[in-house]
Amino acid sequence: MPRRPRIPVYMVWGLLLLAIAAPWLGLYPVLGMRMMCFALFACAFNLLAGYTGLISFGHAALFGGAGYITGLALTSWGWSTPAGILLGVLVALAIGLVMGVLAVRRYGIYFSMVTLALAQIVYFYCLQADFTGGEDGLQGIPRGTLFGLPLQSDRVMYYVVLVVFVASWWFMRRIVRSPFGQVLQAVSENEPRTISLGYRANRYKLGVFLLSAGFAGLAGALKSVVMGFETLTDVHWSTSGLVILMTLVGGLGTDLGPILGAVIITVLEEKMGTISRFLEQLTGIHWFATLNDSASMVNGAIFVLCVLLFRRGIVGALRERWGGAQVPAD
Amino acid sequence: MSNTTILRTRGLSKHFAGFAAVQNVDIEVAQGSIHALVGPNGAGKTTCFNLLSKFLDPSSGDIYFHDQNITRMQPADVARLGMVRSFQISATFPHMTLLENVRVGLQRSAGLAHQFWRPTRVLKRLDDEAMRFLDLVGLVAQPDQLAANLPYGHKRALELATTLAMNPQLLLLDEPTQGLGHEDVEQVTELIRRVAQGRTVLMVEHNMSVISRICDRVTVMQRGQVLAEGSYAEVAGNPEVIAAYMGESTEEMHA
Ligand SMILES: Nc1ncnc2c1ncn2[C@@H]1O[C@H](COP(=O)(O)OP(=O)(O)OP(=O)(O)O)[C@@H](O)[C@H]1O
Ligand SMILES: [Mg+2]
């Protein structure tokens, strides 16, 4: 049956086992959690962009907005951790609703511009508002407990995040492969035709925008709990750019691509010092040491390389290698 | 053929930046008929279809479907009423299988369009019905083939199967035989005749032999206006119509 080529299932189980064992194999749990939060964020972005072609430039507002609200609920209002996270998700849904209603009727760059403009409003609000702590950020967010389980230990927290992440990933995968997902695919392949079959296309686009917003909010809320602080970086437009980068590098419209992209970019940002020193020692070229200060340039270079080498990101390229029939290009 | 009117327009007009693409058009389509809309290139036929299916808003005029004024409706809602259009260029979902294509036409009325939490598996209950429509258009052999891999004539047939899955009362077909080889034209014509049983068809068509064989009534448009209306024999003998087509061929010669 000539269907889309796929990554074999054992790869998925292998990755899961790796993630379970990682803290015992020397992965610093906080780095692992950071990766998972960004991977979840990238999967949420991919749910929208990968299956509808709508490229949002405003996802930072959903991610950071949820992070701030969760942080506020846990620090100032003394809410429990799950309730705080839930509130973060609800706020992301609310911001997503406003963004989606205004944006889904636009196409291409105009869609991106509307989302960016609305995200900038959220950014400037966070910059001005008292509760966010302005440039200093919101500090000292307590992890609290989850149904009686204390989350202070990084390892415990790591597995909680892993469970939330895997469940969310599985659910987003289900959305893509649901009856709703079929209609979404129809809308993205031929919107006028789908409308002529009685579907109000904008409603479906709004629906997936909201789902994406909810998961982006979950990612942001989790991250603020994991890290214990929330700063303006998360609502800044560069974070919207970062999630686009992660998704495109890993593979837009693939299940595993956004995860891979998020892991690669997070590691690069975190370990740039080590990597640049290693390259300097290896080659003796001093210039490599300066790379540490220009992470965005390295990200840009990786992006260009990936776009040139693999049209559909790293996972897209692997998928083609693993075979299955070739699908004509979009 | 009954005498009731299924679709009627009054003074339908559309201006694009001052240019009148459709001007004061009154059309009546009788229920159960196959009605052709013809005219030289740029006469406004596709614009008319876009107005009728509400993909465009008219500058003025009204549209009635079964005496219900649909002038202000959304295109998706017009489709739900039972008036489903096709497009001048074949419109399939290329990266979906033939079966999936037809199922899109069935999902909404089966209440299987919003469910994002259930697996695609639940759509299997629509498979039998979808296969019947594929069978109807002669595409039952490879239901799991991707639509992108079909030859053009088969894409048109698939499009028709998807349209029929909506169980429309009125089909608007924009040049269903355009770009097809001689044999495919025969097949699609035969297919339209067959699916028109118990339905109404309004079709834009350039192929006169197709029109003469299956159409009950013909409306001729020129420069956005209705030039003539009647049976094929009537309009074909109309000197104004002949002049319009002559004019077109003369222009083509000079072009
Ligand atoms: N969106 C638009 N904006 C401006 N002008 C348009 C638009 N759509 C159509 N037109 C013009 O309106 C006129 C009628 O076009 P239309 O596509 O309806 O013709 P047609 O009868 O379908 O022709 P054909 O046989 O070539 O398909 C043409 O002159 C066309 O250029
Ligand atoms: Mg046309």
Labels describing this entry:
heterodimer, A: ABC transporter involved in vitamin B12 uptake, BtuC, disordered C terminus, B: 255 residues, alpha/beta, Rossmann fold, 2 domains, six-stranded mixed beta sheet, five-stranded antiparallel beta sheet, 11 strands, globular, binds adenosine-5'-triphosphate, binds magnesium ion
Brief digest:
The complex is a heterodimer of chains A (330) and B (255). Chain A is mainly α and 330 residues long.
Explain the overall architecture:
The complex is a heterodimer of chains A (330) and B (255). By secondary structure, chain A is mainly alpha-helical. Chain A has a single domain, classed as ABC transporter involved in vitamin B12 uptake, BtuC (Orthogonal Bundle), CATH 1.10.3470. Chain A is built from 13 helices and 2 strands. A two-stranded antiparallel ribbon of chain A has the order 1-2. In chain A, a hairpin with a 2-residue loop joins strand 1 (145-146) and strand 2 (149-150). In chain A, helix 3 (59-75) crosses helix 9 (201-227) and helix 7 crosses helix 9 (201-227). The two termini of chain A are 20 Å apart. The model of chain A is unreliable at 324-330 (pLDDT under 50). Chain B is globular and about 60 Å long. Chain B has helices at 45-52, 75-81, 98-107, 127-136, 152-165, 182-195, 208-214, 232-236, 239-254, and strands at residues 5-16, 19-25, 28-30, 34-38, 60-65, 68-69, 83-85, 170-174, 200-204, 217-222, 225-230. By secondary structure, chain B is α/β, with parallel strands linked by helices. Residues 249-255 of chain B have low confidence and may be disordered. In chain B, helix 3 (98-107) crosses helix 4 (127-136), helix 3 (98-107) runs parallel beside helix 5 (152-165) and helix 5 (152-165) packs parallel to helix 6 (182-195). Chain B is 36% helix and 24% strand. Chain B folds into 2 domains: 1-81 and 169-187 and 199-255, P-loop containing nucleotide triphosphate hydrolases (Rossmann fold, 3-Layer(aba) Sandwich); 83-167, P-loop containing nucleotide triphosphate hydrolases (Rossmann fold, 3-Layer(aba) Sandwich). Chain A binds chain B through residues 1-4, 171, 174-175, 177-183, 185-186, 189-190, 192-201, 207, 211, 327-328, 330, and chain B through 53, 55, 74-77, 79-80, 84-87, 91-97, 100, 103-105, 107-109, 112-120, 122-123, 144-146, 148-149, 162-163, 166. The complex binds adenosine-5'-triphosphate and magnesium ion. Adenosine-5'-triphosphate binds at residues 16, 21, 39, 41-47, 88 of chain B.
